[in-house]
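Much of what follows relies on a compact textual record of a protein's fold. Each token is a code from a learned vocabulary of local backbone shapes. The record below shows the convention in full.
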Amino acid sequence: MNEITREERVAMLEELTQAPGVPGYEMAVADLMRDYIGDVATPTYDGLGSVIFELRGRSESPRIMLAGHMDEVGFMVNRITSEGFIKFQTLGGWWDQVLLGHRVTVMTRDGDRVGIIGSKPPHILEAKDRDKLVRTKDMFIDVGARDEEDARQNMGIRVGDPIVPFSPFSRMGGGDLLLSKAWDDRVGCALIIEAFRRLGDRDFPGTLVGVGTVQEEVGLRGAQTSAELVKPDVGIALEVNIAGDVPGGDKDKAGDELRGGPSLLVFDKSMVPNRPLRDLVIDLAGEKDIPLQVSLMSAGATDAGKIQMHHGGVPSVVLGVPTRYIHAQAGIISLDVYEQTLDLLVELIRRLDAERVASFTR
């Protein structure tokens, strides 16, 4: 299949990031992945809703699993107060400080409802409380309801309804930077789509299996269930990584730069990558003159942590696109770095023949 143009790529990234998909409600993202890949590979699904695409190259094995999680951090309706305000449960890790004053979309069976996250106004707080951090438990979502009955009966809001951050897509920095919600991890979903498009001629060793996983943000759940079906020989999690090149950034904790090139994660809370596979990525980046940032993440986990535990142990690695402001309403990526990551990924897949994959565990 022909490679898409850069403008088509930006349009695809906008469509993917703007789609709603909090943990447990990733169907819209799965449908988009099916639309983009469906003429190359027919989708199947695991029992949790992860979408799986399989493309055979020159051989049935080795089986290379690409994982990009479809879910984004978001919220769920927890309770409707008598006054018609929404109390909410977070889905995924949120920092309380970034929530207040932001718009959200409450997705009901009767349609979407616009809301804004609020709290008690600072003007009526005691002086001693004004400088304190407002906790999520003290926040609410205002959907403009008159009372609880209005919210339930007329707006159709129910406990358990998903709530998605609202953040329009924009280009920044002369066009090479992209601002949107849900880069974590629609950027991984996009890389899967484009890898399948580039490799649609099937001129690669082994079989490529791309998985849009579900519920990563609440426990890496879709990676576990889908890996049981895929039975991969190699796992590659495609992710964001933390870009720490901001005022006050700590290079010891987040050393990646936004425009510094793709990121290779050599440690996270769930895994240490296979060393020969890790070294192959480093050597390949040098050979192809692709700048590569090598980093650690001590406070988070990725789908690779679940994939590596299947099938007697699966050599796995994490490739990422550095992103500013993950787990917030909006983040920033570099389009140039996204494209470099795609180039590195496709070249890596082309090098993973049976002999090389066998060498990872000798």
